Automatic annotation (TrEMBL), chain A:
PANTHER family: ABC TRANSPORTER ATP-BINDING PROTEIN, HIGH-AFFINITY BRANCHED-CHAIN AMINO ACID TRANSPORT SYSTEM PERMEASE. Keywords: Cell membrane, Membrane, Transmembrane, Transmembrane helix. The keyword Cell membrane applies. This is Amino acid/amide ABC transporter membrane protein 2 (HAAT family). It is a multi-pass membrane protein. The keyword Thylakoid does not apply. One of its GO terms (molecular function) is branched-chain amino acid transmembrane transporter activity. Its main location: membrane. GO terms for cellular component: plasma membrane. It comes from the Bacteria. It is found in: Cell membrane. Pfam families: BPD_transp_2 (PF02653).
UniProtKB/TrEMBL annotation, chain B:
It is a multi-pass membrane protein. Belongs to the binding-protein-dependent transport system permease family. LivHM subfamily. The keyword Zinc does not apply. It comes from the Bacteria. The keyword Membrane applies. GO terms for biological process: amino acid transport. It is found in: Cell membrane. The lineage of its organism: Bacteria, Pseudomonadati, Pseudomonadota, Alphaproteobacteria, Hyphomicrobiales. GO terms for molecular function: transmembrane transporter activity. It comes from Roseiarcus fermentans. One of its GO terms (cellular component) is plasma membrane. This is Amino acid/amide ABC transporter membrane protein 1 (HAAT family). The chain crosses the membrane at residues 12-31, 62-80, 92-110, 131-161, 191-211, 223-249, 255-278. Pfam families: BPD_transp_2.
UniProtKB/TrEMBL annotation, chain C:
It comes from Roseiarcus fermentans. One of its GO terms (molecular function) is ATP binding. Belongs to the ABC transporter superfamily. Residues 2-231 form the ABC transporter domain. SMART domains: AAA. It comes from the Bacteria. GO terms for biological process: L-amino acid transport. Keywords: Amino-acid transport, ATP-binding, Nucleotide-binding, Transport. PROSITE patterns: ABC_TRANSPORTER_1, ABC_TRANSPORTER_2. Gene3D superfamilies: P-loop containing nucleotide triphosphate hydrolases. This is Amino acid/amide ABC transporter ATP-binding protein 2 (HAAT family).
Amino acid sequence: MTERGVSYTVSRNTRTSVAAVWLGVASALAVLSVPLWGSPALMRWGVEVMCYLVLAQMWNLMAGYGGLMSVGMQAFVGVGAYSLFIFAQHLGVHPFLAIPLGGVMAALAALLTSVLVFRMRGGYFAIGTWVLAEVFRIAFSNVSLLGGGSGQSLTVMAHIDRTTREIGVYLIAATVLIAASVAINLLLRSRFGLGLTAIRDSEDAAESQGVDVKALKLQVYTLASFGAGLVGAVYFTSILRISPNAAFDPNWVVAAVFIVVIGGIGTLEGPVLGTAIFFGLRWLLADYGTWYWLVMGAVAVGVVVFAPAGLWGYVRARWDLQLLPLQRRLILSARQPQRGARTLELAGKTEVGRT
Amino acid sequence: MIEWLDTIIQGVLLGGLYALFAIGLSITYGVMRVVNIGHGDFLVLAAYLALWPVMQMQLNPFLAILPVAALMFCLGYSLQRILLNRTIGPNPLAPLLATFGLSIILRNGLQQVFHSDSRSFQIGALGTDSIAVGGGIAIGLFPLIVFATAIALTVLVSLLFTHTRIGIALRATSDDAETAGLMGIRARHTYGIALAISFALIAVGGVFAGIRTTFTPESGPAALLYAFEAVVIGGMGSLWGTFAGAVILGVAQTLGAKIAIGIGILAGHLVFLAVLFFKPTGLFARTL
Amino acid sequence: MLRVRNLVARYGDFQALFGVDFDAAKGQIVALIGANGAGKSTFLRSIAGLMPSKGGEIRFQNEDIGALAADEVVRRGVSMVPEGRRLFRSLTVEENLRAGAFAGRAGRWRLETVFALFPVLRERRANPATALSGGQQQMVAIGRALMSNPDLLLCDELSLGLSPAVVKDIYAVLPKIRDEGVSIVVVEQDIDMALKAADEIYCFMHGRVTLRGAPRDLGREAISAAYFGLEDR
């Protein structure tokens, strides 16, 4: 293709991105291998880390790409978790099979209540989703079948022997993480992803280019809620006990927001980096619960105000890295051969990349 | 019958307190189009700020309101100028994320300093006195003071908006910040004043809430949600709409609690959701 | 008074101005003409401080104002009537005018003198500004800009959406304002109107000045060529 004598090829793959795919495959295998050598304690910890990472990925998909700032995502963590208890504890479904049902129920709940929250935008939407989560929390607190305000235990898990249980939950969590990562990656490379990226860059412009902004936002909201529901189901299968205050804990979304903001909102790598920092700091400040959240909050506010692209954004700008091949790169060849390939991101922010 | 009337009156008076929570939120949203997610936590901060002079110097809680409101005014202005103005720009998520982070810092900071014991302010007999209005109905004196204060402050704020220079600047910035800039109206200052007024109002609300019931570092989110619901029920762009929204919310909560204990707050949420569903612009939105 | 050299402006990747040179002297009415998207409004917005310039120099009364934001530019004595009037819709006519005085510059223009210039506004002073007719709204916009007692008044598309008779009335006011010592730069799509009103014309095309001069010195053909780009570039 040529225009004004410049020939170019569109490319998504860079040498680093090919390496990144192999890095991803290697990490997936490493994660899956943990039951072969890890202790039950490590697996439990692993389940928790993976749950937070998936939740952060979901929040990032919704806020970072869909522009939907929700602070009520715990609504769907809770619905997923309670669905697990309803199906497994009360309807006799095998707990491991009830986990995906948790995701489905959460997605359904999101779809139904979207009629309400999608009447709001921006900051109104944010707080509106929080009200919704509170309504769910209070509603579930009043269901005596589910233990009311004090909750209940997943006693059906006693039928499964301990090792199978621990390994099973771990492998399910790992599968959810790997599936979520691959799915988000593929999704954002698809037409759907192009639409979302267009929305992220400018909602009005996307609309005028024929992107059905509202439908796309609803889809991404439902999808993220599905993921949040899975996280809730997996997490509480591992914990074995649920209560409304734990299932609908606003700290779910606080953690997801901090992880994404610190790691780099609107990037695929950000949540991974953010989760590492989140758990690293927690390990460092293990004995200081409130201090831990204070520090996380301060770092997050600092990032929002002074380095809005987050840690990954900084790394990427500093070294021009492109790990996951999401942005399409325009490689101009004719007129600027002296500086190597100049790159132009088409799908991401439209600016000429530095090399 | 009398019982229900009594409940409704209590609800209306509770609405006065919620109006004090909500009007500040309404102002900052109206001027900046930004929702301060930390609104409730700053309200709780104001209550804790009043705790010190009341506990240490035996100051009457009512008198503590003035210095705390002045302090919160300055805090609001500085916070907007130093931090939040930097987040206002092309990315609409940034101010939300910043105030969200601030709310977590504040909540845990208060937890660190004051622990999670619940506190309250004592005002002696005034807290329990009531006025009999006949027909077997008695109105609590303190709730009445709160309600009257809420009305007085709403009048004051609307006079400020309509009759002062800064009021013109606030409304002009709300209408069109860019054009206001062309007039020499400095948005960064106007935004600072908006948050300052909001913070002064929640200082009053925070201390009153601490007299009416107890508070802990975790009380912020509830205050934010009530304030937000009042604003949405009332509709955009009208202080008295917000006031009416707060009253409706108060009545919904007391009626709900009367029907079944533990349902009160849920009833408030449900009224909010119903308004959202049937009239998303709010019940008293100014039609412009 | 206003001296612009090599001004460059861009919206993201799109470059809107390519090195514009411009001068306006005291007591002059200068008209900018050109097709849609020629860069006239961008030029005006750059001077007013609504757009960060990406190169070049804007000097006003020997001070570099290129980096100043709009609220500072107006304090230096440059005021603007924005495109589409942009009146504050929740303010009355009088409040709109008062809002114009925030720059705190003293001078001839006060509520009374603006009402003397546009008597109809005195009667409508308590009305919401948006309740007025288009022409009256334009008067409010001009009056509001005058309230800052500018030395230079920038007017963007005064005739937009107004009937020819109303446009004539609005333009009749400009010489009165100039005679009070205010220089005026107007962006105008109507070439005849511009030629009649202006002491000097600048023609913009594709972000560049293609022609400048006094109306009487410029031939119709030259203007057409500069306006429509009929000459081969």
